[in-house]
Amino acid sequence: MKVVIFGPPGSGKGTYASRLVNKLGSPHISTGDLVREEIRNKTLLGKKIEKYSSSGTLVPDEIITEILKKRLASELSKGFILEGYPRTVGQAKELEKITKVDVVMNLNVPDSVIVDRLSSRLQCRTCGAIYNEKTMPPKVAGKCDKDGGELFRRVDDQPEVIRERLRVYQEASAPVIDFYRSKHLLKDIRNEDPNADPDKVVEQIVKTIKQ
Ligand SMILES: [Zn+2]
Q1: What is the DSSP letter of 119?
Q2: What CA–CA distance (Å, rounded) separates 162 from 155?
Q3: In angstroms, what is the span from residue 76 Cα to ligand 1's centroid?
Q4: Is 187 a known active-site residue?
Q5: Residues with CB under 5 A from ligand 1 (ion)
Q6: Tens digit of pLDDT for each residue in 43-87?
C-alpha cells in the first residue's frame, strides 16, 4: 500500500502513521525523520540542509526529494506510509514520477483541538519522539521511553504561535490537497475529539483506506 498522510501540525499524523505500519505492513517514512537522520550522520545532504536551516531559509524541494528517493529506492515494493511529503504541488509531481500513490489521507482536526493538544506536547531531545502529557504520557515523567532522553516543550507550541502555524499550513497545503482531490485520491478523516484513543482513529483510517 502506498499511502500519503496529510494533516495540520498537531493533528497526530505522526502517531497514526507509525501505528499504521502494523495494520498495512508498509514502512512509515517521515521526511522530518529522514532529514534529522541526514543531519545526525553528517552526510553531504545533511550538511547542505544545515546550511539552509542555520541561515533561516527553506530547504529547497530538490534536496528533500533527493533524500526521499534515496530512502524509497531500497524498499519501494513494500509500499509506504508517507508523512511530511509532498508539501508542494511540485513535490507531488516529483512523487508521481517516482511511483503511483494509492490513497491520500487528509486528517481534519478543528483548530481548537490542535491548540489544546499541542500546548501539552513534549518532545525528546535525542530522537525527536513526541509525547503528550494528557493523551500519551511517557512511562517515566520527563524521560523518553525509547532512549531515556530529556523531554522538553517546544517554544513554537505556544497557543498564538500554533494558530499562526495552522494558518500557514492551511495556506501551503491547500493546493496540494486540491491536486490530489482532482485525481480522486483524497480521502477525508474527521477527528474532533481531542482525547480520542489513537488506536480508534487508526481503525477509522484503515476502514477509510480500504473503502
Ligand atoms: Zn527519545
Answers
A1: T
A2: 10
A3: 27
A4: no
A5: 124, 126-127, 129, 144, 146-147, 149
A6: 999 999 988 878 877 788 889 999 999 999 888 889 999 999 999
